[in-house]
Amino acid sequence: MAKELGGKGKIGVVYHDADFFVTRQRTEAFEKTIREKYPNIKIVARGGISDQNDGEKVASGMLTKNPNLDGIFVVWDVPAEGALAAARTAGKQDLVITTCDLGTNVALEMAQKNGIVKGLGAQLPYDQGISEAILAGYSLLGRKTPAYVAVPALSVTRENVLKAWKLVYHTDAPKEIQQAAK
């Protein structure tokens, strides 16, 4: 977000309005990073979703109340698709949308030359599973293991979306994403 905005601007945050550790952690980390590292980026709008299909409604409300928004962070990819639809409806082709999770639709938008989705953080579920399996094996062998292990997220942009897809899913990106990235 900060890179795409040149370190300044007004943004909105679409968060998951539920007591769910992962989505709460994502939102808190994003907001903390913006506050502490990018003082010229102001979070001027926040809106919660209780259902993944509420992204368009919440983002549309943000854009109506704040027509000069420069960007919107959405807590995961499916509601980000709704924010993308709201941006298109509002004619905001210059809006920067960022999110978490490498889903097909946000990857396709990001792969396009002037796509509104500019970046996301992708989980590495395959690698997480391998790590957990190794630790389970260690535990069965009586070795000490940590209570919790997490694989770091991967930063994905238009420039690396095809390589990131391969790394995340261990398969090539769908043809439509490959074609859009050309």
TrEMBL record:
One of its GO terms (molecular function) is carbohydrate binding. Residues 1-130 form the Periplasmic binding protein domain. Keywords: Signal. The keyword Manganese does not apply. It is found in: Cell envelope. Its main location: other. SUPFAM superfamilies: Periplasmic binding protein-like I. GO terms for cellular component: cell envelope. InterPro entries: Peripla_BP_I (IPR028082), SBP_2_dom (IPR025997). It comes from the Bacteria. Belongs to the bacterial solute-binding protein 2 family. This is Periplasmic binding protein domain-containing protein. It comes from Weizmannia acidilactici. The lineage of its organism: Bacteria, Bacillati, Bacillota, Bacilli, Bacillales.
